[in-house]
């Protein structure tokens, strides 16, 4: 639900100026193309089932729709929606929307956000409606106990449940009202315990129901788990007494795991450098001052996408396709910052896209290629290329630039110098160490360079030796 409100806010900032005036047919055609581009790049179809946009100013493209969004005049908005409520952002309870003959009807909950004029805040230029399919919510609620999870409003009326059988019913008696209690807690009612928590920026609550019989079983399972833990602890003590060799092995495994976690944390902390973020925000500031609203909105979307990928919740090991998505987001920001002074080329073979690799492996090499190779050299045509392919024995990755290059003796020392860990830039030594840990020393990294020609970083992962980690 936070995602729906966030996407509506991004759209409202862009559309407020677009819907400000009627414009010529050509101008409106250009508006429509820009809106399509924004919707294609903004809507998260995993969360939003449909987006409806209503304009108070008639547009020649009103009535345009796809399977994901609709643009229409204000008079097509939900007539059951009170006029005074259209002035504020709010969530509407479960209801049915009829989209078209091709799409049909869906039961949804909807987030409404007004599109306000930038010159007159009291003036409303339109409405954005973000619909979330009730069946999607039911699917999430059924991921656990199919009869135990509910989405309810303040009055305790069920908006969605795992089986869809209790929708519209009161969950906790006619006199109960969630608004009269804390934002989260538990309530004992009718031989069961209800655990609830208010969803952020809404008057809705997520409620879990646990029968008393299940509580008894849960306590029994806890007792069994504690007993097993004690038994395991005793086994560990015996292992400490009779297995010095096992102690050394466990110590080594713990040390390797800790080192991997430390390198991963260093990579994530160093990835988002303050000076890089400051420069991007400064570019956006000048775009806004120059009234380049669409450009600034696009840049904010790209920055948001880059930060989302950088701080995403994952194990630290990602697919090659995900690593390239993060790298592409970084390169787009750098191209904007340096006014497209360089070209970025990728040749990623399909059979390597699902190969696994530690997160933030490629970006430091590309950053070094840009800052120390091509951005400040005298060549007219500047480019960075990333290639990925496999053969029967190994998986190969190359990052190549046509920049200034360096003596081969200097290139040979890069992966061995620990001193770069203490510099402001994110060190290549850090990347090499993480790859050594994650592949158990089954990778090879070479840097080949010629002054005046360029530099190529070559990585080789032996598939037979690291098959469990990299395939």
Question: Could you write a compact summary of the structure shown?
Answer:
The protein is α+β, with helices and mostly antiparallel strands and 471 residues long. It is built from twelve helices and 17 strands.
Give a topology summary.
Elements lengths: L1 H17 L6 H18 L7 E6 L13 E5 L16 E11 L3 E13 L7 E10 H8 L7 E4 L5 E4 L22 E5 L3 E7 L6 E7 H31 L1 H28 L2 H16 L3 H18 L6 E3 H18 L5 E6 L7 E3 L4 H12 L8 E8 L3 E8 L6 H6 L14 H11 L4 E8 L3 E9 L4 H4 L1
Parallel strand pairs: 1-2, 12-14
Antiparallel strand pairs: 1-5, 3-4, 4-5, 6-7, 6-10, 8-9, 9-10, 11-13, 14-15, 15-17, 16-17
Helix pairs in contact: 1-2, 1-7, 5-11, 6-7, 7-8
Outline the structure in words.
The protein has 12 helices and 17 strands. It has 471 residues and is α+β, with helices and mostly antiparallel strands. It folds into 3 domains: 2-134, 2-Layer Sandwich (Beta-Lactamase), CATH 3.30.450; 142-213, PAS domain (Beta-Lactamase, 2-Layer Sandwich), CATH 3.30.450; 256-470, Heat Shock Protein 90, CATH 3.30.565.10. The strands form 4 sheets. Strands 2-1-5-4-3 form a 5-stranded mixed beta sheet. Helix 1 (2-18) packs antiparallel against helix 7 (293-310), helix 5 (244-271) runs antiparallel to helix 11 (428-438) and helix 6 (274-289) packs antiparallel against helix 7. The longest helix is centred in the middle third of the chain and has 31 residues, at 212-242. It is flat.
